[in-house]
């Protein structure tokens, strides 16, 4: 669970590894008030710097403005709810990660690795294309006025995508733990140890539903709304008189959201399959 420290540094979770000596490593809740206040402060600052929210030079009767401002405000509301949910569930997350860290999760399959690699590859390419778009826009216009809005969308969107990746990795770890338990039962059944592992994994599954249930609802809501709004804007722009305006940037958002949505669905389906096959 060393990856927890990475998400802790990125303000995604309030739990990190604490190394007491060379052999003893524990998990602990760390800087929870900062994890609550700092993301909210950053989102509030970015909100006031976003050009679509400032309404400068925008027509309030324009359909473009309504679709974009709806997506922006919905996204910011979801971010606020994610921050508060992470703070409220920090102790339950600590208990879940502590129980899950005792299970062996080293077995991995090529299918999982290829899907994760494809997903991360799409996200990397989208980030590169977004950076190229920023440089091209500044070069063509000679103005940095759009940079705050682009950076706002980048930070907020990736904060949500990292939450989705964190949930996805935990689902993957639990799927591996169930797969290892099934292999252990099939090869050398040790009923005492197997029973303990079974009870621990069942508790982890229940804790996972409590800790990530509301978070997953928010993530799926955001991804579906974001993909729907952007796909609608792309279709309308392609049919309209100025098809190239904004299509490139919207396509990047749709690709990122689709990759994150596919990853969540795939790994949670894998967890469901492993749990079902373990019960047979």
From TrEMBL:
Superkingdom as given in the UniProt entry: Eukaryota
Transmembrane segments: 36-55, 62-84, 113-132, 144-171, 216-235, 247-269
Keywords for the protein's UniProt record, in alphabetical order: Membrane, Transmembrane, Transmembrane helix
Keyword Transmembrane helix carried by entry: yes
Record's protein name: Gustatory receptor
Species assigned in the record: Anopheles sinensis (Mosquito)
């Amino acid at each position: 669970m060393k990856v927890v420290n990475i998400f802790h540094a990125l303000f995604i979770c309030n739990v990190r590894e604490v190394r007491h000596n060379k052999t003893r490593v524990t998990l602990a809740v760390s800087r929870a008030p900062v994890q609550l206040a700092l993301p909210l402060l950053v989102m509030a600052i970015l909100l006031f710097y976003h050009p679509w929210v400032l309404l400068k030079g925008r027509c309030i009767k324009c359909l473009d403005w309504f679709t974009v401002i709806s997506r922006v405000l919905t996204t910011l509301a979801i971010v606020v709810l994610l921050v508060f949910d992470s703070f409220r569930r920090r102790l339950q997350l600590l208990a879940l990660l502590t129980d899950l860290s005792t299970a062996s999760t080293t077995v991995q399959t090529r299918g999982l690795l290829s899907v994760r690699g494809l997903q991360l590859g799409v996200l990397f390419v989208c980030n590169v294309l977004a950076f190229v778009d920023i440089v091209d826009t500044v070069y063509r216009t000679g103005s940095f006025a759009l940079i705050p809005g682009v950076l706002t969308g980048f930070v907020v969107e990736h904060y949500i995508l990292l939450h989705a990746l964190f949930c996805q990795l935990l689902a993957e770890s639990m799927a591996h733990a169930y797969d290892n338990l099934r292999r252990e039962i099939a090869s050398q059944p040790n009923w005492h140890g197997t029973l303990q592992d079974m009870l621990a994994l069942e508790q982890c599954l229940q804790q996972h539903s409590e800790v990530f249930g509301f978070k997953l609802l928010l993530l799926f809501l955001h991804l579906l709304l974001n993909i729907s709004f952007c796909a609608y804007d792309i279709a309308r722009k392609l049919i309209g008189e100025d098809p190239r305006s904004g299509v490139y940037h919207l396509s990047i958002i749709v690709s990122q959201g689709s990759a994150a949505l596919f990853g969540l669905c795939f790994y949670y389906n894998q967890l469901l399959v492993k749990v079902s096959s373990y019960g047979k």
